[in-house]
Amino acid sequence: MPSEEILRHINELLDQNQKEKAVKFIFEMIVKSANAKQFNRAEKLREKLIEVDSMALNEIINSAEIIEAEKSKVIDLDHKKRWAALYDQLTNEEANAFYFALKKVRIMPDKKVIQQGKLNNKLFFIDQGILKIIYSKDGHELFLKNIAKGEISGRRTFFSITVATASVITTEQVKLHFLEREKYSRLVENFAGFDGKLELFCKKLVNQDIEDILKKKQIERRDHIRYEASGKVAIYMLDVKGKPAKTPFYGILENVSEGGLSFSLTGLNSETARSYLGRSVLLKMISNKTELKVVEKGITLSVYNELFNNYSISIKFLKPVPLIKIQEFIDAD
């Protein structure tokens, strides 16, 4: 934020009807801040410049160019070279904003970067070191693959709305950059098409998803067979004390098993859909054939955007439900 002294001087000039002097002073402070690599202050001052005089186009345009030029000077060249395939797709302004949205960390060996079955809101860019992907089932751990310098991790959980299929663990000291979902959302708001560029880059870089590896190794993720099903589902969100919301929302049952179910829901926006992930719910399954209603508790594992804000939501029951209890919902072959 600009200092109180700077803001005070700007306001004094404006009170004296000296807008031109105020514009000149703000521009000088932007240049000074950008040269000092105080980019947040420079950006805030530029916002103030636009607020004071939106018609000071030369100063507004030139200040933006100066800020971007100074930002470009401090980008880690090794980092930019390593991820050149991405940076080459971005405009100078997009590249600068992306770089400054990243966080750089060093992680010691045997630390979980992503945990199976948990939420993940980070996209990881591996700069140095090796990590292993481990899938756990029935108390056993299965090694799937290593990832190393120049690779990414967390793509599926970052771009989709689902929990992690497997854990990612450092095998040695690792250096990496990561992008948080919140910072990503801001980039998407500020730069039209940025989301498509980043997602396409990640898709090209990851030639085999975890699900593909599991299928190749003939490992079944689910403990129970899923059956196509019919009916409605009333969903009550549970609060931290386990108390259900007074008003449910309704979905159309898609499939069901002893371990969980999936239903479709329309009219959600992406952020609302993402907020459902990992939430505990009370489910009331309502049959189309009779007055049968089955009530169970569960937790949201995944939320897939199929098309036009139509979502498929997967729920895992907290306790397995006997097949006979849900038989009426299962479609006949």
Characterization of this structure:
This protein has 3 domains: 4-74; 77-216, Jelly Rolls (Sandwich), CATH 2.60.120; 227-329, predicted glycosyltransferase like domains (Thrombin, subunit H, Beta Barrel). With 333 residues, it is α+β, with helices and mostly antiparallel strands. 38% of the residues lie in helices and 29% in strands. It has a 6-stranded antiparallel β-barrel with strand order 11-12-13-16-15-14. The protein is built from 13 helices and 16 strands. The termini are far apart. The longest helix is centred in the first third of the chain and has 18 residues, at 57-74.
Tell me the domain tally. 3
CATH superfamily of the largest domain, please?
Answer: Jelly Rolls
Total number of beta strands: 16
The largest sheet is: 6 strands, antiparallel, barrel
CATH class of the largest domain: Mainly Beta
CATH topology of the largest domain: Jelly Rolls
Which structural class matches the secondary elements? alpha+beta
What's the gist of this structure?
This protein is an alpha+beta fold.
Can you give keywords for this protein?
single chain, 333 residues, Jelly Rolls, 3 domains, 6-stranded antiparallel beta barrel, 13 helices
SSE blueprint and pairings:
Elements: H1 4-15, H2 19-35, H3 39-52, H4 57-74, H5 77-82, H6 84-87, H7 92-101, E1 103-107, E2 112-114, E3 122-128, E4 131-137, E5 140-147, E6 152-153, H8 155-159, E7 161-162, E8 167-170, E9 174-180, H9 181-190, H10 194-205, H11 210-216, E10 227-228, E11 232-237, E12 249-256, E13 260-266, H12 270-276, E14 280-286, E15 293-307, E16 310-317, H13 323-326
Antiparallel strand pairs: 1-9, 2-8, 3-6, 3-9, 4-5, 4-8, 7-15, 10-12, 11-12, 11-14, 12-13, 13-16, 14-15, 15-16
Helix pairs in contact: 1-2, 2-3, 2-4, 3-4
